[in-house]
UniProtKB/TrEMBL annotation:
Keyword Cytoplasm: no
CDD domains (UniProt xref): Zn_ADH7
Annotated source species: Thalassospira marina
Cofactors required: Zn(2+)
Domain of life, per lineage: Bacteria
InterPro entries: ADH-like_C (IPR013149), ADH-like_N (IPR013154), ADH_Zn_CS (IPR002328), GroES-like_sf (IPR011032), NAD(P)-bd_dom_sf (IPR036291), Zn_alcohol_dh (IPR050129)
Domain Alcohol dehydrogenase-like N-terminal: 24-133
Protein's name in the database: Sorbitol dehydrogenase
Entry keywords, A to Z: Metal-binding, Oxidoreductase, Zinc
Family per record: Belongs to the zinc-containing alcohol dehydrogenase family.
GO molecular function: oxidoreductase activity; zinc ion binding
Residue ranges of domain Alcohol dehydrogenase-like C-terminal in the record: 172-298
Length: 349
């Protein structure tokens, strides 16, 4: 079968691998679409410390059940449309014992610590297979990345009417924008890319701030009557925006970090106390988040058309990654199609 493999930093290629055979309790999925994630870009650039090489990337996906291993539940059937929960938790650490598997100490994510799904087929335990009934295969591949943003919004406990700021509106930030406005929040999007800010506005952001030509903290203060946002969600993973979130926050604000930096960050720690802010982390997503996003996309099908930047066949997926690395600000989401051109349901170039 065809598969995309990152063999070393700045080295990605189309390879051939044996078609996997499902073990007992496993399901083989024939992939239809697989999205490139920001973690895949970091892996390609050699900036992801959790990845070893060679590595097949990909954990944002859609497909159909192709084969069933022995002992698989009768609720699954050949040809059934599915996505995959790509996080593999240990089941024994403190987080797992608290029923928070997304925060597992020993988590392994497909395409990061274990082989991903950017191939024609993959096998996973049946417990990680999620049936999807009413979405196109194309839109199903957006469930996982949007779910990360939806999970962050749940962590933030956003209330209707709150003025919130999203720092960084790449794919994860856009998920936050959608989830926050679904909660009735007044969303302010912040980024350094005019292109990304325009997409955020199309998806419901009420105001946008371009950090390349505006003082973000001053502008956020002005847009919130001098208070600052009561919720800030950091999705850029930059030391600057990590500090900015605390600096710009209102008294008693909630600051949620979704991105993470590759270097230590220094804070003005007195603000933690003087503002009495809550600082929260948000990691991955849960099965409940997947189901919430699925319903959202069913009700809001136009969102996918706005989010998806390019759809390429797997034969061109290596070059698509190189293009993204060369100009990351121009790309929101690349989907890799494992279908023939006549079968790309809902696809747009």
């Amino acid at each position: 079968m065809k598969a995309i493999c990152i063999t070393a930093p700045d080295d990605i290629t189309l390879t051939r691998r044996n078609k996997p055979v499902p073990a007992a309790g496993e399901i083989r999925v024939k992939l239809h679409y697989v999205g490139y994630c920001g973690s895949d870009l970091s892996s390609y650039q050699g900036r992801n410390p959790m990845v070893g090489f060679p590595r097949v990337p990909g954990h944002e996906l859609s497909g159909v059940i192709d084969a069933l291993g022995t002992g698989v539940s009768g609720t699954f059937a050949i040809g059934q449309r599915v996505t995959i929960l790509p996080y593999f938790n240990c089941g024994t650490c403190f987080a797992c014992r608290q029923n928070r598997p997304n925060a597992c100490l020993n988590n392994q994510t497909m395409g990061v610590q274990r082989e991903g799904a950017m191939a024609e087929f993959c096998c996973v335990p049946q417990t990680h297979v999620i049936p999807v009934h009413n979405l196109s295969q194309r839109d199903t591949a957006l469930i996982e990345p949007l779910a990360i943003g939806f999970h962050a919004v749940e962590r933030a406990r956003i209330q209707p009417g709150e003025k919130i700021a999203v720092l960084g509106v790449g794919m994860i930030g856009l998920g936050i924008v959608l989830a926050a406005q679904r909660k009735g929040a007044h969303v302010i999007a912040v980024d350094i890319s005019a292109h990304k800010l325009e997409i955020a506005r199309q998806l419901g952001a009420r105001e946008t701030i371009n950090g390349t030509n505006e003082d973000v903290t001053t502008r956020l203060s002005a847009l919130t009557g001098g208070d600052g946002p009561s919720v800030l969600l950091e999705a850029a993973g930059s030391p600057h925006t990590f500090r900015q979130a605390v600096d710009a926050a209102s008294q008693c604000a909630r600051v949620v970090y979704v991105g993470y930096t590759k270097v230590p960050v220094e804070f003005e720690t007195r603000l933690f106390v003087s503002k009495e802010i809550e600082i929260l982390g948000s990691r991955g997503a849960t099965r409940d988040d997947f189901e919430t996003v699925t319903r959202f996309l069913e009700d809001n099908p136009a969102c996918a058309d706005i989010i998806i930047s390019r759809i390429v066949p797997i034969d061109q997926a290596d070059q698509a990654m190189r293009d993204w690395a060369a100009n990351p600000g121009a790309i929101t989401k690349i989907l890799v199609s494992l279908l023939g051109p006549e079968n790309n349901d809902g696809a747009t170039a």
